[in-house]
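Q: Can someone sanity-check these two? First one:
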Amino acid sequence: MDTSHLALFVETAQKGSFAAAARSFDIDPSAVTRAVTTLEKSLGLRLLERTTRRVALTEAGKIYYEHARKLLQDLAHASDQARDVVGSPAGIVRVTASVTFGYRVLIPLLPALRESYPEIEVDLLLSDTLVDLVGEGVDIALRLRQPTDTSMIGTRLAKIRYHVCASPEYLNRHGRPIQPSELAVHNCLRCSVHGHLSPWKFRDASGRVQEVSVDGWLVVSNSLAMHRAALDHQGPALLADWIVKEDLAAGKLINLFPNIEATPTDFDNVLWLLYTSRVYVPKRVRAFIEFMKDKIGEYV
């Protein structure tokens, strides 16, 4: 039996359409349809019910799908273990992260990864929505929020700190706030990600926490765009240190409250590395994980 037909059938069942499965494999949808039809003919039964928009597993298809999915996983694990015995870390590591984190941190790290592990290939999936690691075949996720999926193994890579920043030109025009409460009268740049809009939270050296309701004319869904707006003198922005530390050092942005902690959510902001819980973690994935543990502190 052709395992490529099995893989296309499983992908079609998971994605719910031939077109979506074809996009995953970067092939023509007709090739997926032919592969599944050939598989059905060889078995003498129908695995999928077709409609104009979607496909669904038949009762027989549900049984076959579960066994086929496990078989493909077992074959992949067997291949990984066999390769790991005879060689250095090699193969594709599929990684997901937010667009901003990928641009600001991951991409600059890749040359060092390439130098350390020249046989590792990286398939980087950047998205501001949470990606299903199992469904999308992702090996590693880098996330800036506490993991809630107990099936994932999580490693804390770094503490994330936030700063309220504004450009010198903005402060010259509008004055520099001395206390966080004064932000209420400024044109603050806000992020529309859930929980980040307002209020902003502050904690002083004594541990006293203060919430400040902020407002402003610009709301954006991406912190990279908000960073650009802050550099363009549009107002104070609450941004992570890994986004602004170079601009703070260069004087392009000013940290308004250097002695006060700030956050859009809570004060335990951590960069997490997540991977799926499985019996065997391939050498290439282990190498990527150890590399991130070793190098991430230089960028975050």
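And here is the second, same format, sequence then tokens:
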Amino acid sequence: MRRIYLLILTFVEHAFGQALLSILQSTPGTLSTLNSLINSSTTAKNLLSTANNFTFLAPSNDAFKKWLADQGPTSPSQDLIDATLSYHLVNGGFPTVLFSSKPQFVSTKLSSAAFTNVTNGQVVELFQNGKESEFLSGSKTLSTITSADIVCTGGLIHVIDTVLDVPQGLVTVITQSNLTFFIGGFLNVADQPLVLPVLNGPGVTIFAPNTASALSKFTSLTANATQSELGDVFNYHVVPNFSGYSSNLRNGLVLKTMQGDNLTITIQGNDTFVNQAKIISTDFLIANGVLHTIDRYVGKE
């Protein structure tokens, strides 16, 4: 079905579509702030004028008004503006008819090393929530489509009500997300030089224990641990070079950790386990991958 729909869409785009920038500029009442930001950026203009096979998520004026206010008293840097606009250009065509309740994690044109280290570009989550077609970005920021499936040459435009949030680094994400127990124990390990490759490495998946019992077990087991042993504890919860978004976690999947040992994914009903630890919240996007929280420590006791 997806292939047939995209073939039809491609025909419509080439037969009737206007250029992306022309359509954006023809709706000043809704997208004037977006147009102003694009026109002030050579990088954005070049990216959008040459785009092909894409879905562009166009934040409304109200969306940008809130986003600019959230930046505080100083204006966002041009680098942040360029990164944010790049993050709204999704690779591939995603009309709303192809959205479903099962989340999809789709890559974008955000690839600047200053903002991301995810192979093929930082991702955004898309899904259908009842009658609403929605996106989740950094900090679990929710964006809803208000005007869908606007056909243009080479792709589609969806107007959205909230600017996508560029995912931040691990330490910032777990602090902003108030992962209290992970911060109380495991985050201290992340300060050690041994785990710096995790913080900066490409495409990592992190399983973060974030319950009182996990913190208690961690505290007990590491009371007299060496720096190397602490690094091993942290690295046992990290899978390198794997895009472990929830949609990619399948029953029986075996993952090799940064520490060297394996983790096994088990799915029972609606629950997903990492070894014996249950995943309690999923898909916190971070600058170099994804983080899920789990209910217990998964290392050797």
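A (reply): Looked at the second one. Residues 2-16 form the longest helix (15 residues). Confidence is low (pLDDT under 50) at residues 5-9, 11-16.
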